Amino acid sequence: MATGAGRYNEILDTFTRHIAEIGYDGVNFGLVAKELGVSKGTIVHHFGTKDRILAALHESYMTRRLAELDHMLEKLKDPAEQLAAALHAFMLYHVEDRAATVAFQREVVRLADEESMAKGAELRQQYFTRVRDVIQAGVDAGVFRQVDPTVDALLMFGSAQWAWTWFHPDGDRPIDAIGSALVDLVLGSLLVDRDRVTELSDPAGRAAKAVRDAMQVVAETEGKAAS
Question: According to the UniProt record, which residues make up the DNA-binding region (predicted)?
Answer without folding.
Answer: 28-47
